[in-house]
Write a structure and sequence with these properties.
Radius of gyration: 22 Å
Largest sheet: 3 strands, antiparallel
Number of strands: 5
Strand order of the largest sheet: 2-1-5
Helix content: 25-40%
Strand content: 5-15%
Distance between the termini: 44 Å
Order of helices and strands: HHHEEEEE
Mean pLDDT: 78
Shape: elongated
Low-confidence stretches: none
Amino acid sequence: MEVDYTDTIKDAVAKFETAYIRHHLKACHHSRTKTANALGISRTALFQKMRRYKIGGMEKKEPIGSVYTRCISCGCTVELKASEVGHVINCINCATKLNSNPRKS
């Protein structure tokens, strides 16, 4: 790893930790438990660092935003929660089962 002396200490530490974690993940065959043990930190601490530095799919997922579908029976617009997208739900007004393709607003 090459050192950039124009970085702030925070950026330099972030670059070092990222490279260090990636090295140990590879050496431990991407086992997060073994990597945490090798680094001498808890799995939770490792997960937090992986999320902070966007390593290995641990980055925070952005909310999908508002998703709506229209009830065929009563015509109302129903806002879906993220966990409901792609599932059959009931219309809150008429209890008709909804399973249409939602559209993002």
